[in-house]
Write a structure and sequence with these properties.
The protein is α/β, with parallel strands linked by helices. The protein has one domain: 3-Layer(aba) Sandwich (Rossmann fold). It has 18 helices and 17 strands. The strands form three sheets. Strands 2, 3, 4, 5, 6, 11, 15, 16 and 17 form a nine-stranded mixed sheet that branches. Strands 1, 7, 8, 9 and 10 form a five-stranded antiparallel sheet that branches. Helix 9 links the parallel strand 2 and strand 3.
């Protein structure tokens, strides 16, 4: 979930807006989107009050020493731990876990990273437009669920619900999957008028009504969400899930990478002595026998998520949109890293004080579900939003700005979203649909935002 600090040196709009007028971006696909949603693009201005950067933070307390002692004792008692176990401890442990203890303080310019919804309202608005547009193209007109995993501050869902309200959508309920209590409170605070109470003996842990009238529920896991027609969205969620790392030696044998203690009692990486059952079970055959691959990362949690989503939309109807940074399977080295104050730091230093992340392997995820779903993408984030009409939306917001500073902030945020130096090419977008929609999608030449995208 991580991006470096926003650049403030000004904007180079011609670099990422095609060198012409802003509303020329996106070509023919954009035109159909604009025609369909003309009321939205032209009627709304700065409805959310989030032009430019949206960030609220306080300083993060130092829980690191207590968590470090716990990890060291665990290793001394039970032996080396996997990177996945280390990531789970540093992110979710009640003893100084990054997300469980620091909560919303990690987001924004004064936190450790900025996510796209905090960057600009246009991100969430266009995701909302995409969800509603695709829903209407399925022909489905009954009650449906909008499901978000890893909702962060709640800003993305806030911007999406504003779009749904604009289109008078009344048949949707909101379902958020969140494991951090502090983040859950932050989400409810931004989405609802009042905070609710935790609920026991129900699949959901909280329920409420948003400020714009939508029923909303919070869950601890995706498996607890009702089995109904659902639209699944996730932004910078999969990259934060625990991973296992494997490395091939010169003899062609695979070893798992563990976290251990060195002679100075400091955390260090080490290789398992030999192949083990986990190595054999998690490494795909094509990876094991590809001599060009010597390093491999895999997230069991991400695999589980994509399978659950595929099963849900296949059995009960719906579709999914996944936005994250990653690759199509072409990366052949380790990507594990950590972010603190918008800078890359070593993941074993000061556990619980930084955000640990790894690139999403979209190619691997596609292989897991391509037999039972239609998959579009991944495409670059800037291509997706260009086709969704971000140029037209930017022009409308620019016209609503009252000062030069507001306009510059808006351009800066859009540049971060679309440029090569920001999120534009590094972040990817992928969508999943049930195969029952194959004929409709072929007739439409694919879903919005995925023109010329590879299809599986």
């Amino acid at each position: 979930m991580k991006m470096m600090r926003r650049e403030d040196e000004g904007t180079r709009e011609n670099e990422y807006l095609g060198g012409g007028r802003i509303n020329k971006i996106g070509g023919s696909i954009q035109c159909s989107i604009e025609e369909w949603f003309g009321v939205f693009f032209f009627a709304q201005t700065n409805a959310s009050g989030t032009i430019g950067i949206v960030s609220e933070k306080s300083s993060i307390e130092d829980y690191s020493s207590q968590l470090l002692r716990f990890i060291k004792q665990k290793i001394k008692t039970n032996g080396p731990i996997s990177i996945a176990d280390y990531m789970r401890l540093t992110s979710s442990s009640p003893i100084g876990g990054y997300y469980s203890c620091h909560g919303s303080d990690i987001f924004g310019e004064k936190g450790d990273f900025i996510t796209a919804p905090e960057l600009t309202q246009m991100f969430g608005e266009l995701v909302g437009v995409w969800c509603y547009y695709e829903l209407k193209n399925t022909g489905y007109n009954m009650e449906w669920q909008l499901v978000e995993n890893g909702p962060g501050t709640g800003q993305l869902m806030l911007d999406i619900t504003r779009v749904l309200k604009q289109f008078n959508e009344t048949k949707v309920s909101l379902h958020l999957v969140e494991t951090s209590d502090s983040l859950l409170v932050r989400q409810e605070s931004i989405l609802c008028e009042n905070l609710s109470q935790f609920i026991e003996e129900k699949p959901y842990v909280r329920c409420n009504v948003t400020k714009n009238g939508f029923p909303i529920y919070w869950y601890r896991s995706i498996g607890e969400i009702p089995s109904k027609f659902s639209v699944f969205i996730s932004n910078e969620f999969l990259d934060a899930l625990p991973i296992n790392q494997f490395k091939r030696d010169l003899k062609g044998k695979w070893h798992e990478v563990y976290v251990n203690l060195d002679a100075d009692d400091k955390l260090c990486f080490m290789l398992s002595k030999s192949e083990n059952l986990l190595t054999l079970s998690l490494l795909p055959e094509k990876v094991r026998h590809d001599p060009s691959i010597d390093e491999w990362e895999i997230s069991v949690a991400a695999d589980s998520y994509i399978k659950q989503v595929a099963d849900a939309i296949t059995n009960f109807g719906g579709f999914a949109l996944i936005i994250d940074y990653g690759h199509d399977g072409s990366r052949k080295d380790f990507s594990l890293r950590a972010y603190k104050d918008h800078s890359v730091v070593h993941p074993l230093e000061n556990p619980g004080q930084h955000d640990i992340t790894a690139d999403v392997n979209f190619g691997h995820l596609k292989d897991l579900v391509k037999d039972r779903t239609l998959i579009y993408g991944p495409v670059e984030q800037r291509a997706f939003f260009a086709q969704m009409g971000i140029g037209l939306r930017l022009e409308k917001l620019m016209n609503s700005c009252k000062t030069k500073e507001e306009r510059q902030a808006l351009l800066n945020s859009c540049e971060m979203l679309l440029s090569d130096k920001g999120m534009g090419t590094r972040f990817k977008v992928m969508s999943l649909f049930p195969k029952t929609l194959k004929d409709i999608l072929i007739q439409r030449k694919g879903p919005a935002g995925f023109a010329n995208a590879p299809t599986f």
